[in-house]
Amino acid sequence: MYRLLTPFDYFEPQSVREAVELLARFGHRARVIAGGTDLVISMKKRQLTPECLIALAGLEELRFIEFDPVAGLRLGPLCTHAEIARSPLVREHFGMLATACNEVGTPQVRNMGTIGGNLCKAGPSQDTPPPLVALEAKLRLLGPQGERVVPLDQFCTGPFCTVLSSDELVVEILIPPLPPGGAGCYKWFTKVTVTDETLAGAGVVVVRGPGDVCADVRIGLGSVAPMAIRARKAEALLRGNRPAPGLVWEAAERAAQEAEPRSRAAYRRHLVKVLVNEAITELWPLTADLPGGLG
Amino acid sequence: MSGEFAVVGTRIAQPDGPAKATGEAVFAGDVRLPGMLIGKVLRSPYANALVRSIDISGAAALPGVVCVLTPDDVTDWNTFDRGMKDMPLIAGGYRIPPEEAVVNRHPRHFGDAVAAVAAVSEHVAEQALALLAVEYEQLPFVLDPEEAIKPGAPQVSPEAPGNIGKHLTYPFPSGDVEQALAEADVVVEGSFRTPKQEHCTQETAASVAYVDSAGRLNVYSQCQLAHLARRELAHIFKMPVHKVKVLTPFIGGSFGQRGSLCAEPLAAALALTSRRPVRLVFSREDHFTSLESRTGFKRVTVKMGFKRDGTLTAIKTDMLGFLGAYMACGPMASVIGMSLVMGLYRCDNRAGEADMVMTNTPPSGAMRGFGNEVMSFAVEQLMDEAAERLGMDPVELRLMNAKHQGDVAPFGLNLESTYLEDCLRLGGRAFGWRPKAEITSAAVEKGVAETKGGPRVRRGVGMCAMNHCSGAAPLYLEHSNAIVKFNEDGSVNLTVHPAPVGSHIWGALSQICAEELGIRAEDVNIVTGDTDVTLFEYGSDASRSTYAIGGATKRAAQQAKEQLLAFAAEKLDAQVEDLEIRDGVVYVAQAPDRSCPVGDLCYDAIYSFGGHATNFAGKQSFEPEWNSPIYGAYFAEVEVDTLTGRVKVPRFVTAMDCGTAINPMSVEGQIEGGLQQGLGYALTENYAIDPQTGVVQTTNYDSYKVPGSMDMPESTVLIVDEPDPKGPFGAKGVGEPGMVGIAPAIANAIYDAVGVRMREVPITPEAILAALADQDRE
Amino acid sequence: MKVFAGFDINGQTHELGIEPHQLLIEVLRDHLGLTGTKHSCGVGNCGACTVLVDGVPVLACMTLALAVRGKRILTIEGLAGGPELHPLQRAFVDLGAIQCGYCTPGMILTAKALLDRNPAPTAAEVREALAGNICRCTGYVKIVEAVLAAAEKMRGREVAP
Ligand SMILES: Cc1cc2nc3c(=O)[nH]c(=O)nc-3n(C[C@H](O)[C@H](O)[C@H](O)COP(=O)(O)OP(=O)(O)OC[C@H]3O[C@@H](n4cnc5c(N)ncnc54)[C@H](O)[C@@H]3O)c2cc1C
Ligand code: FES
Ligand code: FES
Ligand 1: distance of its center to the CA of C62 in Å? Predict the structure, then answer.
């Protein structure tokens, strides 16, 4: 690895429109830079040597946190992990996302790194995708042809690959509100030290329905597959049923089977089982008398 | 204990603290000189290869590139041993052959230097590096020491037939081990494995070199052994020693790694070739792949015999270590480890051997503990097993086998002082060590009965004992010097050359000097860091600086004081024997009204017109022929998550007998820092090499994990603070031991918690789960 | 292509001609000679290069210099703001929290940002705030003690008239 970067042209667009125009002009030769915590390292490693960098940091229109009971939470991609983890709105309505953002790297990385960068990096072990896929978040993308909205679980197409074309930007992250009786949490296990990368992560949402059955459950798994995935077979086992300990354990085992880790595979699967079991066991009692959703 | 001293034993702030707290302190990488170039090193991507050719045309044509160094350009210089042991440093004529060149035509490991560039900026240097086109011929390689000693394995070094770099035997054997083992009532044995550990000094290796107009080579060096570095650099570049000057800036950590040459030969070579100042700072990746890291052991087999009453009667050791591609400092890790740990307890029958094997991996060397940690990991776990088998408390077993003053010390010398018993008792009390009955039953039952159905997280406690050396007499060269000079205001210049690696050595030496002279520590200026100015100094390693350089300092101060007092006796019309110095004032005993400030005496002696002008100064060479072992006891509490295998260490207590604590705050700091490194060694740090390719996989902190602030236990440090008869004001060393006992205490606590014996570090969650699964099957 | 840009570093404005690909750490160390900001890992893991940008700890080894033009940058050289050490510096020196000193500038600046936000942190909060700053020498024990001691000192100072 090198310590310094190779030369590039640098642009500081004054609006999202201008940013998109620049992207359209330079295409694959350009990269946008948000917090830079990922991109700068790739450039030091010479994995990426873009000819031109387009800095988003000045675009205040991409930095917002808003909540509406009907539409849910709207997040600007430029929000840093620290801002999201601290946000009273996020903590109140989607605590699991605040938890995940608080788990990213170190305090300095959380001060610099953005949620947009985290999603666009699209590495297998990013921390925000597992809770966000469980929350069925959507991304609003903007390109020269206009806007489109993509569900997060269709955004990633492989490790470090997304549906984003070279002239598109993520301009908003939308999280629909949880249904009444819903609760969620993020559980994770780091590789080695406390601040280390996540070895296995599980974002789980449970919704209690009439008859005290599990009306809905969504399990997002991170670090155990090429990208964050939903453990849909495990979800199906639980949906419509009472999550008795035996069933929860069975579902957790099923989730572990759905995982496809590459390295430390047996252990990661084992952790998925432990984390999913822990999450659902913890969440179920919380959903007992919830007026509205509580992520 | 230190109540009798005025300065020794006080918690003074370090003289270099403000410079470091404000960013003013200059480290090697901070040196900036006019016209300075930036160096970069090209490293081999292969475990073993021959450089067929290097096309430098692209790099040389790049504007701003001043010189490119290839293996063809260094043939006029000598090859060298980075560990600088190509001289009889070690008693018994132990020699390491000069094996490497500044850049190598035959790179023997991933990361070995094959070329270097110097350019006007770091940007240009990086660009030039990328333009060097090297054609390699890949050669067969061997990475595993067990494979390396098989017939037909690729030869790593022409100097090591059969890849045995060194076969070493325990230097202090006694009795008949086999017979003693055969006659023992209880025999415990085990085979252990320990990895390489990277020092992870926060500052990477760096050096700045330039040739001055007098033709002298000036080198800013982080070497802990500055005078040896000067000698070795003179040898490499075929210069007389006086043509080389080594300058020591602040050093951002060492932990043994800077006991060898690191960036210096390359920086000097670039400076000599370009005739411009050159700064060379290793990247973290350079660091991980080219410097010596802690010597790893593929196998350490230990067998111990006991009588039924707990008396240790026999200990036998067999070690297989890996040296990597250069012998450097690695081999001695076995001898030091065996000597220390097999000499910790009274035991009449001892024998040990080690094969130190060469492999195509980055070299191994000294790191805090230097073999002690490996042998402790093995022996102190076996002590615990023995205690269980004998039905004894682990603390009791250690107490009953502890050595006493006057016994033979680990390195064969007289044992000057030991307060191991105090360490065990004090530490045990602070920790809340449980009575014997509770321990044995808990350990046994937990292991067998409770694993199923017990609580998910199990707590356990474990402990171990340790001894370490203060310097390495009589095994290594031990030679220190100090000059103490009085200034006309009564302050003192102390000229010494320890390595300012962060061990608070300037403060400690100023305290020793001030105590001897009866002045304040802040009135001692440390003059250091320039081999032109300082007398010969072996340097700072083996926990020796306070002990040996402190010894030289005390003697030099004494000499200067004698001159001062003789002068004062005349002035005050008194007998020298009746004089004493307190707070910078010379008093006549029983006549407090007859006194004179030290400053006045010094002034009068210097600004004298009576034919008696003199500048009080002492200069002493000191070669300790003794070695006062340091003793310690370590107590760990762990929590083992039986579902995930993760081990947490919430609490740790260390009790240390390091003689008089010259500055208790510094002593605590060494022990607390040792805990961080020991914890990493025990649980998190795993230097990984791809077994297929020999590529180092952990080359930075993103993959190699040292403990952070949130990983650390609550730490309690207890200092026994009893003076040693030999050390300056009773001090012994304390640099290394903090790290040594951590892993064995943790491993013993894990056993206590879940009943499995972990015989390999780092102890990973997967290894815990596997061990628990094995236990279930049984 | 050089760009002329204004930097507010330690309360002083610097007009510098820099290239877009230069990192903040280069500008500080190589252009301005502020070598108190240290380089160690270069990949964001160790915090040795920490500086405060508008009061927030960021890593100079992965920040583009141009990205922080016009913002308030504080490096260790600017902390004391006079001949007297800042209470954090004082506490680090007096309580033995500095060994080799290489992590010290980053540690102290990270701690300053914490105390600005939370003048009365618990030991656990201090550990959390310093989780991105590796120290290989001290085991963090005395560092945490020093931050707590400085916090107390600074609270006392604010109360005093
Ligand atoms: C020490 C360290 C520890 C880390 N630990 C973690 C961790 O624990 N968990 C974790 O998840 N991640 C971790 N990361 C990875 C990374 O920092 C985070 O993913 C961070 O959120 C990335 O955000 P950024 O703004 O810095 O991204 P940048 O580096 O600026 O960008 C990353 C990528 O996304 C693109 N991009 C950014 N924003 C947009 C946008 N709005 N539209 C389109 N493309 C965009 C960029 O072009 C680039 O390709 C760590 C990084 C470091 C250095
Ligand atoms: S050097 Fe910047 S984080 Fe390590
Ligand atoms: S004091 Fe050396 S790294 Fe912290």
Answer: 12
Q: Determine contact: B186 vs chain C, CB below 8 A.
A: no
In the predicted model, what is the mean pLDDT of chain A? 96
Pairing of strands A52-55, B186-194: unpaired
pLDDT in tens, A206-245: 999 999 999 999 999 999 999 999 999 999 999 999 999 9
Q: Tell me whether B707 touches chain A (CB under 8 Å).
A: yes
Test mutation, A42, A45, A106, chain C, max C CBs within 10 A = A106
Crossing angle of helices B550-572 and B598-606, rounded to 10°: 80
How far apart CA A161 and CA A120 sit, in angstroms, is 8
- For residue B252, the surrounding DSSP H or E stretch is none
Mean pLDDT of chain C: 96
Q: Which chains does chain C touch, 3 or more C-beta pairs < 8 A? A: A, B
Cβ count near A15 (within 10 Å): 11
The residue whose CA has the least distance to atom 15 of ligand 1 is: A38
C42 lines ligand 2 (CB under 6 A): yes
B 281-320 residues inside an 8 A Cβ radius of C: 281, 283-284
Tell me, using a 6 A CB cutoff, whether residue C138 lines ligand 3: yes
> B454 falls in which pLDDT band (50, 70, 90)?
confident
Question: A9-55 maps to which CATH number?
Answer: 3.30.43.10
Check residue B449 and give its pLDDT: 38
Q: Is B710 on the interface with C (CB under 8 A)?
A: yes
Q: Would strands B617-622 and B480-486 be described as parallel, antiparallel, or unpaired?
A: antiparallel
Rounded (10°) CA dihedral B85, B88, B93, B94:
-10
> Which CATH class, in words, describes the domain spanning B293-472+626-777?
alpha beta
Question: What is the model's pLDDT at position B443?
Answer: 46
Alpha carbon distance A255, C134 (integer Å): 36
Segments making up each domain of chain A, as ranges: 9-55, 60-175, 182-287
For residue A37, which ligand has an atom nearest its CA?
1
- C44 Cα: distance to centroid of ligand 2 (angstroms): 5
Query: 3-state DSSP call for residue A66?
Result: strand
Closest atom of ligand 1 to CA, residue A169: 42
Of A40, A54, A198, the C-alpha closest to A126 is: A198
**B51 close to B698: Cβ distance less than 8 angstroms:** no
- Of the options 6.20.20.10, 1.10.10.350, 3.30.1360.120, 3.30.465.10, the CATH number for the domain spanning A60-175: 3.30.465.10
Question: Average pLDDT in the B532-549 region?
Answer: 95
Q: Which residues of chain C neighbour B503 with C-beta distances below 8 Å?
A: 99
Q: Are B496 and B481 in contact (CB under 8 A)?
A: yes
pTM over 0.95: yes
pLDDT score of B95: 77
Q: Do A195 and B708 touch (CB under 8 A)?
A: yes
% of chain A residues with pLDDT over 70: 98
Establish if C10 touches chain B: CB-CB under 8 angstroms. Answer: no
How far is the centre of ligand 3, averaged over its atoms, from the C-alpha of B510 (Å)?
22
Model pLDDT for residues B337-390, shown as the tens digit of each residue: 999 999 999 999 999 999 999 999 999 999 999 999 999 999 999 999 999 999
Chain B nearest C-alpha distance from C5 (Å): 20
Q: Does domain B31-139+200-290 have CATH number 3.90.1170.50?
A: yes
Read off the pLDDT of residues B432-445 as tens digits, 9 standing for 90 and up.
Answer: 997 654 544 444 44
- Domains of chain C from N-terminus onward: 3-78 (3.10.20.30), 87-154 (1.10.150.120)
Contact C84, C93 (CB under 8 A): no
The CATH number of the domain covering residues in B2-23+479-622: 3.30.365.10
Report CA(B548)–ligand 3 centroid distance (Å): 24
Q: CB of A108 within 8 Å of any CB in chain C? A: yes
Pocket probe for ligand 1: among A10, A48, A80, A109, the residue whose CB has the most ligand atoms within 8 Å is A109
Q: What is the architecture of the domain spanning A182-287?
A: 2-Layer Sandwich (3.30)
- Tens of pLDDT, residue by residue over B114-172, are 999 999 999 999 999 999 999 999 999 999 999 999 999 999 999 999 999 999 999 99
